[in-house]
Amino acid sequence: MPVKRTICILGLVLLFSIHANAYTEKNLLQQTANLEQVKSALITNQKWVPYPDYADRGGWDKLLGDNKALLIERAEKALSHPWEVVKATDYLEYERSGNRRIMEDPFGRNNNAIADLLLGELAEGKGRFTDQLINGVFHSCEMTSWVLSAHLGAQHSGRSLPDYKEHVIDLTSGDMGSLLAWTYYFFHAEFDKVNPVIAERLRAELQERILDTYMKEDRFWWMAFNLKPGGMVNNWNPWCNFNVLQCFLLLENDTDKLAEAVYRTMLSVDKFINYTHADGGCEEGPSYWGHAAGKMYDYLQLLSDGTGGKVSVFNNPMIRNMGEYIVRSYVGNGWVVNFADASARGGGDAPIIYRYGKAVNSDMMMQHAAFFNQQDDKKFSFGRDIFRMLQSLLYAPELNALQGAPQAPAYSWYPETEFCYMTNKSGFFVAAKGGYNNESHNHNDIGTFSLYLNTTPILIDAGVGTYTRQTFSSERYTIWTMQGDYHNLPMINGVSQKFGTEYRSSEVKFDSKRMVFSANIAGAYPEEAGIKTWIRSYALGKNELKVTDKFELNKTTDPNVLNFMTWGEVKIDEAGTVDIHVKGEKARLVYDKNRFEASMETITLDDPRLSNVWGKEIYRISLKAKDAVRTGVYNYTIKQIK
What we know:
- The protein has helices at 28-32, 35-41, 57-64, 68-78, 88-97, 101-124, 130-142, 171-194, 196-216, 236-251, 255-275, 293-306, 317-328, 350-360, 363-375, 386-401, 608-614; strands spanning 330-332, 335-336, 411-414, 419-423, 428-433, 436-437, 449-453, 456-459, 490-491, 500-504, 506-511, 516-520, 531-540, 544-553, 561-566, 569-571, 577-582, 585-590, 596-604, 617-625, 631-640.
- It is α+β, with helices and mostly antiparallel strands.
- The strands form 5 sheets. Strands 11-12-13-14-21-18-17-16 form an 8-stranded antiparallel sheet, with no helix packed on it. A 5-stranded antiparallel sheet has the order 3-4-5-7-8, with no helix packed on it.
- Mean pLDDT is 93; it is low at 1-20.
């Protein structure tokens, strides 16, 4: 199919500005059904499950197709898995050094082995993997907690060692709950043949750790039941609620209790939808789309399945906007727009993009998924998200039969989230943002931009390194990747942007006819910066990007410094130009040599989460003003050169 150049439905208004973080009581799910309507719509006793019973060999052969042998092969490797003990000191290490991985890695290997054994036994059906699956289940039941050490601060003790007196639901305990709920659903009868205590114990642990905890507690921040004005609701909300909903629909057969639980999840997920802007932008970035909007889709799909389609919001434009964000944020060749903690590599999982697109009737998403699917021999990802795995298999024939091409909108404008993407026929792709400095996974990056030439990143957002205790603590902004000076932004009067909800952009505008995005970023800096106004604008022309800073300061203390991040070969041989060569693409940054002096800093990347994307080094180009002036206009241009 030919590449489509569509007009973004979000950009019908040429000039639009609205404050970020505008929580609105949309309550889409509650408007769809009340408690009694949910109760009457529920399909009980797991009759909603669209997959074969364990004993239906023909059904599994049909569902798995060519994937059967691969699933069996993975399970065979798990037969020799040594069930690893997560020691008390592994949990305590998070407090002592900030290291999360020492606890997470063995725990993750155990959980992956359970998933592989579960799927392998469903594929083969001979009982060969049952005993080892039982070992994994029993080992998990013996653990005090399924919560990560980094998340156990939600305990009343606030400590990272599991407290036997209480249970917490976090991302991983929820993942484990849903994985083990599917294990119980498919295999409790087989476990009973070995010893009834196995399934009884598993069912009891799921009841206590997930079902009862969810219904009795409202203090977990991700539930958002006690959300305060200005509070954050991020991917944890749909992710945890999705896992909880799976557990209830797979385990609870009392209709009254099930209806109450399902409706409670609806009240909570509405908080996430309320927090998200109607334009559908994901402030956490594409890497988190699968955990944010993607998990919301999973939740909504499960809710629809469990109620026979009677409780559904897939026809709401906002839900479609949230889905299409992942397509619009795709630059090409595996690169994506990566604001905040998101990685610059990715693009999303083809099967979930397809299913989401089908649910909301988005040709853009389905075509994008088909294109991705054609490039990917795996077809879908393996892991311990059993719902996604089985859904991928269920929809695989449809997706595999579809031919698609990348979708290339001329621009995408998110007026509430304040993201703007612009492209031209010369191969430029520009992504810029406004926003505020307390977004989910925030970096102090108001007004920053990224530039790509023929899908290759030229001026970049580095992303984030491996998570440690410091990443989500009061020490977060001591990490260089979080700081405004390591984004494509100015340091004004020697002062950098500051963290906090009050530090935000204003006068954010996009003119789609002129292809100009602008924002007043003065509000992103603290009072000591002495800024009255600072309008940063990006104008995309036929063969160049013009960047302009128009400013007025209340005082001058230090010369302003304009920073640009890149990962290519940098040459500053001639005053007035900086040449950047990356992967065969060549760009030239042109500036006024009479006003600025250029320099370059090399940043060594010793963190694999960064070096796997950018290599061993990235570079910060700095244009330092020769004079400190109170008012003025800075102009610089990035051109493609041959």
